Amino acid sequence: MSKSYWIWYPGDFELYHGMKQNFSRVERGFGWPAFWKSEGFRNRVAFRRTYHLEEETSFTVYSNAIGHVLAGEKKYPFGKKITCGPGEVTVAVHAGCVEAFPCIYIEGDVICSDTGWMAEDYEKDPQPAGKSKYFTRPEQNPTVWEYSEKVYEPVSVTEYNGGTLYEFETELNAVLEAKFKNGYQPVLICCGESREEAIDTVNCYYSWQPDKETGKCPCCAVRFAYIPDCKPGEVILRANHQYVDIPVKAAFHCGEERLNQIWSVAEHTFRLCSGIFFIDGVKRDKWIWSGDAYQSFFVNRYLMADADIDQRTILALRGNDPMTKHINTIVDYSLLWLLGVDYHNEGYGDRDFLELVYPKMVSLMGFCNGRREEHGFLIGKEKDWVYIDWADMDKDGPLCAEQMLYAACFRVMAEISEQLGKDGSAYRQDYEKLTASIEKFFWDEEKGAYIDSFTSGKRNVTRHANIFAILFDIADKQKQEKILTNVLENDEIPAITTPYFNFFELDVLCQMGKLTEVLDKIRSYWGGMLDLGAVTFWEEYDPSVPKEEQYDMYGDHFGKSLCHAWAASPIYFLAKYFAGLDLVNKDGVTYVLKPQMQYFTDLDCTLPVGSDGTVRLAWDGECLEVTADAVIIATDQPYKREWVANLEHSLLPKKIQRVLLSPDQLQRYLIEYYQVSRAVLSSQKSSAHDRENKGVEALLQLGDTQNPDANDQHIVKLVDWVLQFAFEQGASDIHLEPRKDTGKVRFRIDGVLHTIYNMPANTLTAVISRIKILGRMNVAEKRKPQDGRLKTRTPKGQETELRLSTLPTAFGEKMVMRIFDPEVLVRSFQQLGFDSRLLNEWHALTAHSHGIILVTGPTGSGKTTTLYSSLKQLATDEVNVCTIEDPIEMLEPSFNQMQVNTAIDLGFADGVRALMRQDPDIIMVGEIRDQDTANMAIQAALTGHLVLSTLHTNDAPSSLTRLHDLGVQPFLTAATILGVLAQRLVRKLCPHCKQEGSINEKDWEHLTFDYIMEMPAQVCKPVGCDECRQTGYKGRVGIYEFMPLSLETKQLISANANLNELRQQAKKEGIEPLRIAGARKVLEGVTTLEEVLRVVPLN
Fold first, then answer.
1. C-alpha closest to that of 191 among 156, 163, 153, 226
2. What is the DSSP letter of 422?
3. How far is CA 459 from the centre of its chain?
4. Counting Cβ atoms within 10 Å, is residue 427 exposed (0-12), middle (13-18) or buried (19+)?
5. What does DSSP say about strands 118-120 and 127-128: parallel, antiparallel, or unpaired?
6. Strand partners, 149
7. Percent residues over pLDDT 90 in the chain
8. Taking the CB of the first residue and of the last residue of the chain, which one, N or C, has fewer CB atoms within 10 A?
């Protein structure tokens, strides 16, 4: 028999039980239903499904409602066995109920209430029916939740002031049950979260007379109970604690007892507030608040990882469309609801649920967009509550903190829309407009912070908006640093006193690396509550308030909740930032561990990974052991499941999590993880010794035959993989770096180094030795640097040369391989970044028959590529092109290439001298390094040759003074130099993921000073995706400063003008420096302001 569930219209279950939850508050004898719009469930629902039956089958429908079953053309009552088939049959169940939401249960072998049923309410399109794992039996009633129970006896019964005081071991959500020694007595049982509350019979929140028949009281929060005018022993009291049994998957124990206690109390606090829904607390409100729920989602991921309670809470909070009032009447709580959906989706990735709530998200944003003022800011209208936090904020006009949340919602809506295959561009545009307005109206440069209000003129700064600006990545890095100094670390800014906003502040501090400060705050703030005797954490705690006033709130004696969900956040911080478990992408399965073990003497911690798995960290102060209970298996054939059962059996007790990969991805990972890992492992097999170290440490190994050999087949495979992977990733350099125990393999991609693999140090040594053999280097010599060359083929079949360089370091030889990719070395000028004007001027310059053309820039700026590309065009059958290089970076049939060889005293100057006798038309000198080379280049130019060369200087004008510094006479420079091209390479924004964003005004002014360039309102920003390895950049392009030497400039050079005079002349002639060329690339959306500032000289 297939598994059946009770099913209903999606959301009705949550709305019904949410209403019951929000109507459950009782205070000092009177009821207090929640003071916001109550969302109704549907009273009339139809359920439909079509079956294609191969044979006759029977089923029975049960319901809490009135109605009937329509099987084919015939009607049947509920509770009667129905037989139908074979053939196609459509089953429709019509149900109506006034008192509760209609729901049905279908029992049968084939036709049953499993997934696949659609529900409709006669108004909207049919929706997949809702269900719950808690309701799977026909005798159940989904309108009545079946709570688990645990009986607690008092740990202390004492006489107090003529009555009896009962103390339980901790706070409970319990039904008190009284048994009377001498028969029933109409006693009053006063309950309290604290002793002080229980013994105050006037002001305590809950006081009950037990039921005469059962002796039971209504369920309430209780830690202490007091019966006045009753002697100990006359009434026996016990507590039936009621709870929803959601398994806790996390455990935490470290060498610091204070932290262990904080985790334990936070866990108990959170479990008390995690019932059918996440509620604020078990006393006072007992309501479903969106702000409390938002933070509960974060704690839930690291404690229980129960996706169902997230979803129940999300649906109960939002209610039905159309949206006519803010959630909980609070503006920011509507926004936090939407952000909470995003966090839930990130952690569990339930697309069906996302499809269900997406229309509600759209409706919510539409409702908020209708409540904007003239600048586009969201404001509270009549009966809207702008909350944010209990703090003295300037709430005149639009509130900055509210706008930060609003902006974050636009970004989330864009991302989720695109995830569902919908257009998110309008939301992205709204995000850009709003963040630009926030910067314009709320950022106060003098205060170095965001102000609460721009309409009042007070320029009041609180922590709240500034925390959100960092948390939701609205402030740029410079502003974040200012906020850290001027707000978060500024004692003059009022401190946060609620655990609610401490959550946001500590999250920001963790992200900014202030882990020591955060741990101290956890110890002092939450530990401060423990010092006052807390067994659960409170709604609010101000250390400056005397103990006797700590239980009061809203001017109400004992009005504070002493068990509040939002106070359980230490679980989130300790798990995410100290144990170091974080979700790194939005597929719900890819996590990264970055344990911060320096904060613990020892640690034994188990944390949930997704909905099904766990990971355990065991740290003894020296060694960290990580074990997981789930094995993630990727497949490109999701419908083939035959292997699962066999593998599950062999992997027990671990579970299998399947993820879908494309065949290309699977092939890549098979090579990258299995072939490479197997090769590393095989090379290490039975290796029980440390490798031989020829660095600063010397260790004698006797009988060491275990270290991997350079010719071992596994080492050969590793070398092949390193080279092939470097070609695939477009790396320009490969770094093999030994360390004491583990060596690093790093690739330079687009000018930035990335760690690719960590391998055992002795394996890395063997890999380096293998490459030295291939490069015909001296394998035995590890004491001095060596150079070599290696030729190979890329996966595309192109011949590629690698220049090898070794360097002795403390832990052995380091090797760097420079890859000379033919595709990179010779490119079109458009690919290099030449615009049409520059290209025409460059062609005009290289058309000269004699003179010197210099290309200047630091190492790795693309000078050689520019020269090769130019020579390739100049090398026709009519001219003789000769080069002298160190080394020859690419063999080109149309050139006559010669390599410098210092071993036989063949340097650049000697090479030029020799080339002069070879009847050359064009000479390329790899680099002018000294006076001899410079003089020979000048002599070659003076005798009718075109000379192209490189020089290491910062910009074009400084290359002229550099030649003078080398000893060249100024009149010779003026006579021979045709022009100078200075260049840099900047990373290009990834076209797949770049987004528009606001611009940093100060950085733009800093980049473009002395030049009139209009600052753009929006510029493109890096985001990060799989195409660009999550960097936001893909590929590089050149920026250029081209300085042809005019007659006026040559006269200045002959007069021995200094560098500043040459720069002023260049500016007069309209020559733009590198920084302005970079600014133009920013305007074109090719690169970012930050990238240009990183590489160009700001002269």
1. 226
2. S
3. 33
4. buried
5. antiparallel
6. 242
7. 59
8. N
pLDDT at 672 over 60: no
Residue with tokens 């790396």: 731
What is the predicted pLDDT for the residue at 653?
66
Model pLDDT, residue 822: 65
Q: Torsion angle of alpha carbons 561, 565, 570, 576, nearest 10°? A: -170
Helix axes 713-729, 676-684, angle to 10 degrees: 150
Q: Please, what sign has the CA dihedral across residues 489, 493, 497, 501?
A: negative
pLDDT of 793 above 90: no
Calpha distance 291→280 (Å, rounded):
9
DSSP 597: G
pLDDT tens-digit profile of 859-896? 878 888 888 888 888 888 889 999 988 777 777 788 89
Average pLDDT of the residues in 911-919: 86
Encode pLDDT of 529-546 as tens digits. Answer: 999 999 999 999 999 898
Residue whose pair of structure tokens reads 């009552």 in the numeric block:
77
1065: its two tokens: 């002349």
The alpha carbon torsion through 765, 771, 773, 777 (nearest 10 deg) reads: -90
Distance CA 246, CA 267 (A): 12
Phi then psi dihedrals of residue 1024, to 5 deg: 110, 130
DSSP single-letter state for residue 752: E
The 799-809 sheet, strands edge to edge: 752-760, 742-749, 733-737, 812-820, 799-809, 786-793
Cα distance between residue 987 and residue 1034, in whole Å: 7
Rounded Cα gap, residues 435 and 415, in angstroms: 17
Report yes or no: 852 and 1045 within 8 Å, Cβ to Cβ.
no
pTM higher than the cut 0.90: no
Strands 443-444 and 127-128: unpaired
Question: Which residues, 6+ apart, have CB-to-CB distance to 420 below 8 Å?
Answer: 351, 354, 355, 358
- The pLDDT of residue 692 is above 50: no
At 698, the pLDDT band (50, 70, 90 cuts) reads: very low
**Lookup: tokens for 605:** 């911690």
Radius of gyration of the chain (CA): 37
Q: What is the pLDDT averaged over residues 115-127?
A: 93
Query: What is the C-alpha separation between 953 and 957, in angstroms, rounded?
Result: 9
Q: Which residue from 467, 342, 508, 468 is spatially nearest to 409, judged by alpha carbons?
A: 342
CA distance 983 to 954: 9
Residue 186 CB partners (closer than 8 Å, separation 6+): 209
Residue 1024: left (phi > 0), alpha (psi -120 to 50), or beta?
left
